[in-house]
Backbone:
């Protein structure tokens, strides 16, 4: 695996900067525009606040924000991990069982059409304000992309490799470990990434509906108090949770499938 | 164990009813132990289909393949198959890919370590043993795939256009390497190719296959001495063989 990262660190950083300076300029420009457009266009403070004020007011309320980030982050991570734990084996089972493929698979595809978020009020009413309903909503949001991508992943081994493994007489288990599983990983990661991006949506909405802590709860309360500055601070930390989760998945992807084209190009 | 391969009325039809594609046969053919037989024919005539049926990976619609006196009823493990598209996996190095063949068969990679080195040297790939397939050119990938297909020293070799992606010069070199290898070990070889010259340079027998549905039009015995170097290839006998095949293809409008 040594040949993947031969570039010295600084050279790599230089290339990185060279490729991304335009993005950095755009990004900084965007926030500058936001900052000054509020003065230029006379936007009232209770509608939109400049980034500088968001930072200032957010910092003043940092303790609460950090605690709620922990609360929401924990719900998100737990739901995401449980989704992986259940979805991967189920995806495997469906991929390799013709009975499940004709029964459970079409059922899952139908359920996938249902917006999972719509269940949130029901779960809150059944299970109350605690951790459990939030984890269940995150789980539901994450579960389907992981299952469906896993099924796709384990079913799309190339014809040539299928013939190759049969010609060796290696048996189902060896074929799975040495060929099917590694070949399926890239498509599985597509599902993990999609789930990671959407996980915080599930957590935030569950908290909007019924909760007495967490970032979703916070955003709702401060918006009610005409404090868009604090709402943006809450959104910032919610984004941070999403970014961290996505980052973890991306790092895992780099470690597990460094040979894959998406990793090599990225 | 004998590696004689017999085809008894082997025929393959894909699909059923109105959509059925009659891909190949019926064909009767016997390939004796240690022979080098080329299947020479245009694209889509069923060469790969015949390969798969020989290795037991595809069931004939009619007829039977017999190897070493035993009817083929499932995948044959004592053959080495080089598929038309290479079977290198992207997550392993060249060496790892060759070892994949051994691991899948439950053979010890340590015991075969020297053999892997020899094979890599034979195809001039020693320096690339730790590279991944995407770091190789198409021709290099094909050479690695050859090692992968043959590392377990099979008595029968099925090669589906193994030299297809190589440039003319490398192709010429690998051809003579392949010939040397065959002369030393005398495995039974079925070799698929589009190249008339290549077929006659390498083979003891050339089976000329006509377009769909693929049938063996003629089997040409090539009674020329080995190794077939430049000298032999410029002989009048060699040219006569080449012309014979060309005439068959011309009469079918292929060339
Ligand atoms: N799995 C399949 N299902 C349906 N038709 C097939 C299948 N495999 C091959 N065929 C058909 O059988 C015929 C022979 O195919 P085959 O791949 O054996 O040709 P070939 O001689 O190897 O050609 P080439 O030189 O281009 O590789 C073709 O017409 C093809 O369309
Ligand atoms: Mg073919």
Residues:
């Amino acid at each position: 695996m040594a040949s993947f990262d031969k570039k010295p660190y600084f050279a790599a950083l230089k290339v990185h900067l060279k490729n991304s300076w335009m993005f950095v300029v755009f990004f900084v420009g965007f926030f500058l525009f936001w900052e000054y457009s509020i003065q230029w266009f006379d936007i009232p403070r209770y509608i939109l606040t400049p980034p500088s004020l968001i930072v200032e007011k957010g910092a003043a309320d940092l303790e609460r924000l950090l605690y709620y980030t922990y609360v929401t982050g924990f719900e998100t991570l737990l739901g995401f991990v449980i989704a992986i734990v259940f979805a991967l084996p189920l995806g495997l089972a469906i991929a390799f069982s013709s009975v499940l493929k004709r029964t459970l698979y079409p059922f899952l595809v139908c359920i996938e059409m249902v917006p999972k978020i719509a269940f949130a009020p029901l779960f809150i009413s059944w299970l109350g304000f605690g951790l459990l309903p939030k984890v269940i909503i995150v789980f539901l949001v994450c579960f389907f992309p992981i299952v469906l991508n896993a099924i796709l992943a384990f079913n799309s081994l190339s014809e040539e490799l299928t013939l190759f493994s049969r010609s060796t007489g290696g048996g189902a288990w060896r074929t799975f470990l040495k060929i099917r599983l590694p070949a399926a990983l890239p498509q599985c990661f597509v599902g993990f990434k999609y789930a990671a991006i959407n996980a915080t949506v599930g957590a935030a909405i569950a908290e909007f509906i019924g909760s007495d802590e967490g970032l979703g709860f916070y955003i709702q309360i401060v918006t009610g108090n005409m404090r868009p500055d604090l709402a943006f601070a809450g959104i910032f930390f919610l984004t941070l949770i999403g970014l961290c989760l996505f980052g973890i998945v991306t790092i895992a992807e780099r470690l597990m499938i460094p040979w894959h084209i998406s990793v090599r190009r990225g | 164990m004998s590696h004689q391969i017999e085809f008894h009325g082997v025929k393959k039809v894909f699909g059923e009813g109105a959509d059925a594609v009659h891909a190949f046969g019926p064909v009767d053919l016997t390939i004796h132990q240690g022979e080098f037989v080329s299947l020479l024919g245009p694209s889509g005539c069923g060469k790969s289909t015949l390969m798969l049926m020989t290795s037991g990976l595809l069931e004939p619609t009619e007829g039977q393949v017999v190897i070493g006196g035993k009817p083929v009823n499932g995948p044959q493990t004592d053959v080495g198959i080089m598929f038309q598209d290479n079977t290198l996996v992207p997550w392993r190095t060249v060496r790892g890919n060759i070892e994949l063949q051994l691991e899948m068969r439950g053979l010890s990679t340590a015991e075969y370590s020297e053999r892997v080195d020899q094979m890599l040297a034979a195809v001039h790939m020693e320096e690339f043993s730790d590279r991944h397939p995407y770091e190789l050119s198409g021709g290099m990938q094909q050479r690695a795939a050859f090692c992968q297909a043959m590392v377990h020293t099979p008595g029968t070799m099925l090669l589906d256009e193994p030299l297809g992606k190589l440039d003319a010069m490398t192709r010429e070199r690998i051809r003579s390497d392949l010939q040397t290898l065959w002369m030393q070990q005398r495995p039974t070889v079925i070799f698929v190719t589009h190249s008339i010259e290549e077929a006659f340079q390498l083979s003891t027998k050339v089976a000329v296959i006509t377009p769909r549905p693929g049938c063996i039009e003629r089997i040409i015995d090539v009674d020329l001495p080995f190794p077939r170097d430049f000298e032999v290839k410029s002989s009048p006998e060699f040219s006569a063989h080449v012309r014979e095949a060309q005439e068959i293809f011309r009469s079918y409008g292929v060339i």
User: Anything to note?
Assistant: Chain A has one domain: 55-265. The domain at 55-265 of chain A is CATH 1.10.3720.10 (MetI-like fold). Chain A has eleven helices and no strands. Residues B 47-48, 84, 160 surround magnesium ion (ligand 2) (CB under 6 Å).
